[in-house]
Amino acid sequence: MNRYEVLIVGAGHGGAQAAVMLRQLGFGGSLAIVGDEPELPYERPPLSKEYLSGEKTFERLLIRPERFWTERDVTMLLGQRVVSVDAERHEVTTAAGERIGYGKLVWAAGGRARSLPCAGADCADVHAVRTRADVDRMLAKLGTVERVAVIGGGYIGLEAAAVLSKLGKQVTLFEALPRVLARVAGERLSRFYEDEHRAHGVDLRLGAQVEAFELDPEGAHLAGVRLADGQIVAADLAIVGIGIVPEVEPLLAAGAASSNGVDVDAQCRTSLPDIFAIGDCAAHENRFAGGARIRLESVQNANDQAVIAARTIIGEEVAYHAVPWFWSNQYDLRLQTVGLSTNHDDVVLRGDLGTRSFSVIYLKAGRVIALDCVNATKDYVQGRKLVEAGAEIDPRDLANAGRPLKELLA
Question: What is the pTM of this model?
Fold first, then answer.
């Protein structure tokens, strides 16, 4: 049985960053990354954007080239899925039955794409956008596809719809809620993006519950999407982007505390000895969410928690308190978000929606808690400091686009 001083499960952003940081911090012990995909660690956000559109090759998505990992003596155990954890013996077991020992374990397995629990969901023409293989399967069919159904009006669904629309496909997007981006943004931003997608030819349907995927008479290919009201919308290919399910079953079976994903403390430690969890699957108390225990599905969170876990492993006393940030590219719009707008009680529009360059600022009890900046990078950069400080600013000053936000903090 092979044994490593630090074993990282998950070859995504968090797992890669944890390994990079450990070496940068001078950790010289044995170190390995276990990944269930055959590829070296790569960037996932471009999958629904530049990779799907063909603007970037897969090689340009690699977080580091192969020689980087070799030079730093990071063992890559790729194409292997960890199915169980023995916290007492400090061992994991893969799907192939191989046992791997560890001194410290960093769980960075992220999550798997959530599927629709309905008839036809297992059809080969119904796709997710979570891995390179997902998108490659989709790209292999796009040349013969005219009508695409996108289920889900979050970032993934909207980004995919934008790319496919630009590729000349007839795109219908179904969102079960009354507006897109309902879980992450306010209504003003949602309505702006709905208008943009419709202006680009996307048939956007809100409050649309998908009940089943209709197949052709042979049952081999997708024919359409059936809604709860009985309507059937023709489609040759479907993309389901309705979130993820945290990949934490082996940790929970080993006895790890869990609320939503796997619970971690401020140092990213789980309740199991010598086991850390980071990224999409790690539920932590976040001060920008009022101290609530949440999961953040973002590259920023995965990378920042990886740094905390690495520093803790080498004996430093640190705690996670990074301000959350996100981004999304759709058409020629760059959305940059800082903070968490959940439970805001006031909204300020800074700029003009018609110019397609503006910011939406969210407040709670008079304090700035988040900004959504559309083609407004300066607001994003300067507004970050307002969020970090929980600044109490007069809404009239915030709305004055002619006044730099950095002046308001001073």
Answer: 0.94
